[in-house]
Amino acid sequence: MSTYREIHGKAVKSLSSDPSAETDAGQIWYNTSSQTFKTILKTDAWSTGAPRINTLAAGPGFFGSQTSAVSAGGTSSSTTSEEYNGAGWAVGGTINTGRFYIGGAGAGIPSGRIFGGRSAPTTQKNENEGYNGTAWSEEGNLTTARGMLSGAGTKDAALAFGGNTGPGPSGGSNQNLSEEWNGTSWTEGPNLNTPRAGAVGAGTQTAGLCVAGQSTGNTNATEEYNGATWTSVNDIPAGREGMFGWGTQDSAVAASGSSPYITTTFNYDGTNWTTSTATIGTAKSYGASAGSTGPAGLSSGGEAAPGNTNTTEEFNSSANVITAAAWSSAANLPSVRYTSYGGGTKAAGWVAGGADGTPSSSNIVNTTFNFDGTAYSSSGTMNTTRRSGGGAGTQTAGLAAKGTTSTANTGATEEYGGSSWTSATTAPVACHNVGATGIQSAALAAGGEPASATNGQVEEYDGTNWTAGGALPTTPNAYAGSQNMCGTQTAGLLSGSSAPGTTTTNFFEYDGSSWTAGGAFSNGPLGGYNGLMGIQTDALMFGRNTSPANTGMYYNGTSSSSAPALGTARQQVAFSNSPSKEGVCYGGIIPGVSNATEEFTSETTAINVKTLTQS
Q: What are residue 188's DSSP bridge partners?
């Protein structure tokens, strides 16, 4: 009789605590603390990623992996491409020919290509463009113009197959053509056994995979390519057109698709297809999908019922349970509030002052609330009743600087001890819509309105006095916002605008003496009155005064990318300012004044430990 060690290569262990490595998957152990047998299991799961910047109509060209993907086009006129870095989307280079239903091949940023597509229902394209991470270049055209084709392989060894040459996916215009790119030109290769359009393409130029699609109705036919011949292999259980898929001949994934839309996911092991236990969150088709070495991959955008979507979802099959980064609702503020001062951490925050919108937006309050991550408690009142200033510091050592009262701008400065406020040295420049960050003994305030008062002014606070810091590099209104700074006095980060027509498109970084322009916004001018949490090299921006007002954006010190959106779209919020983007968003305007509270949690992973029970 075989033993467990002989079958699995691992002995049953006796341990006082559970192992936490993914390599321990399949291990069985006896936990002496809980007196139970346990194991680590691999599971399939979809998790929500950051949304796309643009909502696509249909069929962008796409290539890459779960952590380095490119999507291009997606409408008849769109020339935009987007890049995904595993956390969010950023605008890429502009393609030369706008189109949709495009094929693609490549490893990801910065290497890949798109080919074919349509620019109108009856206009098929044979254009072929290569990408170097910055720009798209027109190269040798496909032999046969067509849309709804599939792709596989790399930038310099691509495979294009199937597609449709008619105005729609009717049986007579679906193609069985395949073509190979050698780095210079396309040559015709052997035909598919089943003509089809909207199929999943995966693998390489010499080990390709074609799955499902539209033939004479949906087909579940699967074919493998060895560089010389297409061979029919085991069918996928439920074929659809426009499915999301990726991988290799030995490990592939196909999911969702239409018609009708389904949420099912299928795994391929090189011989058989099996139905996964995981279902995709949004049923859709003809979006972008990538994953060079299955099973890890992603789906993004596409056609969905009742309309197109910008959602992104990641698929993983591992012993780790992945929980995507997200905003979650928390207890509401005791009263509605906007343009308030805020500070502290996710588990120990504070909100003070601001306006409550009743009976009008000029109704300013001076009350303070402490937040412990779960509930609020009332605390002290500010000595100067005001709004639209800058908040910094912790719950027991906070700072409120500048702002506007019901009658005038003020430079009033107050220190917070966790239960009461103490007036401190007044800042030399009185203004509102100022950004502030840092701690009570080393704070930074920048910009503000009106421009005639601030003139690009930056001031530093040492716990006693204010002194002038390095001036902003351009007119202050371009950097005026509602508490839109994070970081420290010597490594600050600023963004946003509140002045009409002066929205910025960059983050700006402070080193303790001067400012430099950082990376551009991933989706163009953001607007103003946004929140900003974290540090100079790891920040999260959220909310704005332009639509959609729940927009989120990451910044890593060099470039920005899309981030999970707020659950409640709003502007002029207060927020925690601990040195982490794991924080809290308080109140704001939606356009009515809000008391909504949301907490942000980054992506987490945890080993999937299961207790073995007898049933």
A: 179
Residue 110: cis peptide before it, omega within 30 degrees of 0: yes
Mention every residue, 6+ apart, whose C-beta is less than 8 A from residue 332.
Answer: 595, 596, 597
> Which 3-state string (H, E, C) describes 217-231?
EECCCEEEECCCCEE
Q: State the SS3 of 288-300.
A: EEECCCCCCEEEE
Residue 206: exposed, middle, or buried by beta-carbon count in 10 A (0-12, 13-18, 19+)?
middle
pLDDT tens digits, residue range 213-223?
Answer: 999 899 999 99
Q: Which of 41-55, 165-179, 255-269, 530-544 has the lowest mean pLDDT?
A: 165-179
Provide the residue ranges of all domains of the chain, joining segments of one domain with +.
4-41, 58-295+305-318, 327-601
For residues 313-351, one letter each, b for 16 or more C-beta atoms within 10 angstroms of the residue's C-beta and e for the rest, the string is bbbbbbbbbbebbbbeebeebebbbbbbbbbbbbebbbb
CATH topology identical between 58-295+305-318 and 327-601? yes
pLDDT in tens, 483-529: 589 999 999 999 865 444 445 567 889 999 999 888 888 876 566 78
Q: Shortest CA distance to 583 belongs to which of 341, 371, 332, 380?
A: 371
Q: What does the alpha-carbon distance between residue 147 and residue 124 come to, in Å, rounded to a whole number?
A: 6
Per-position DSSP letters for 296-325, written without gaps between them: -EEEEEEEESSS-EEEEEEEEEESEEEE--
Q: Are 504 and 496 in contact (CB under 8 A)?
A: yes
Fold (topology level) of 58-295+305-318: Neuraminidase (2.120.10)
Structure tokens at 27: 């291990």
| Cα(576)–Cα(580) distance, integer angstroms | 9
Nearest to 88 by CA among 46, 134, 47, 52: 52
* Alpha helices (runs of H) in 455-601, residue ranges in sequence order: none
- The pTM of this model reads 0.86
Sign of CA dihedral 349, 352, 354, 356: positive
User: Beta strands 552-555 and 485-487: pairing type?
Assistant: unpaired
Q: Which two tokens stand for residue 82?
A: 């987007």
How many CB atoms are located within 10 Å of the residue 433 CB? 33
Question: Which letter does DSSP use for residue 120 in this model?
Answer: E
CATH number 2.120.10.80 given to 327-601: yes
Give the C-alpha separation, 197 to 177, whole Å.
Answer: 11
Question: Which residue stretches of 295-421 are H helix?
Answer: none
